[in-house]
Amino acid sequence: MTSATLEIHLTDEDLTAALREDARRGLTATPKSLPPKWFYDARGSELFEQITELPEYYPTRTEWALLERVVGEIARTAQAEVLVELGAGSAAKTRLLLSALNAEGPLKTYVPQDVSTTALRAAADQVASEFPGLAVHGVVSDFTDTLDNLPRGGRRMIAFLGGTIGNLIPRERAEFLAGIHDVLEPGEQLLIGAGLVIDPAVLVPAYDDAAGVTAQFNRNVLRVLNNRLNADFDPEKFAHIALWDAEREWIEMRLEATEAMTVTVRDLDLTVEFAAGEQMRTEISAKFRRAGFEKELDTAGFATEQVWTDPDQRFALFLAERRY
Ligand SMILES: C[S@@+](CC[C@H](N)C(=O)[O-])C[C@H]1O[C@@H](n2cnc3c(N)ncnc32)[C@H](O)[C@@H]1O
User: Fold this and answer.
1) 164 lines ligand 1 (CB under 6 A)
2) Domain Histidine-specific methyltransferase SAM-dependent, which positions (predicted)?
């Protein structure tokens, strides 16, 4: 049986150390906040997969249909020998891209990257069994920390799908795009899937579904703190909130304390007070306008080659080349 190799740059100890830092900073700040990468333990990754199938969650199925329509064009333009995918998750949609690149000829290696070891291992093994001639080499790392551990050599395309780019605040996004520019060679490509600014009446329910799966996903960050840092959050005492910030053009997910609480994070020797109604930010999901994002790509040293959108203009795929 073909199996994938896995390169681990983030051990369990590294993750705990990073979470300690983020939790101390985020829980002692005003207002409190936590970075979204901590949703994704095994349970969080599984909940995200459930979200992608919800009737309200249009991004995954929109990007899927868009990819189905344009992967041939992407593969012809890219002629990639190596596909690197950041935040690959289950890599479900990536199959479309891999098949198209395979049909085009030169594809030799797929490098899925993610912070979640369990999700990555499962995705990498699955792809290896579906594409027997393909070398599959997973990388467990944090794309906001370093991209230096991505493999070099071969003509590469980096894919970043699912609208995950929107989870970075503008400053982080600029640093991230500059970091990708630095690991690519001139002429190599970047494919980004990004949600577009649309009617909040469609947008908000995508992050606040009727079945409450996104609420569970949001509260999962508290379970991660309980499990990894011996905290004693009662997740059910936090309400899930999703808001559209029209000025900054992003969805903000928050957790709201339903009553006054004192929470102890034992491994940090930290006591955290929550007032009734206090809100803590857990994720942003920025939405983009085509011209604005092309400008961000340009600033980072990329020339946009092509942009595809779905008929309702809800989601876009940007294919860009490192310019210099
Ligand atoms: C919104 S999901 C998208 C998954 C998949 N690409 C898709 O399109 O359905 C975000 C993915 O990025 C991963 N992720 C989030 N923050 C990360 C980070 N800082 N470094 C690496 N992976 C991260 C998560 O584990 C998750 O698999």
Assistant:
1) yes
2) 20-321
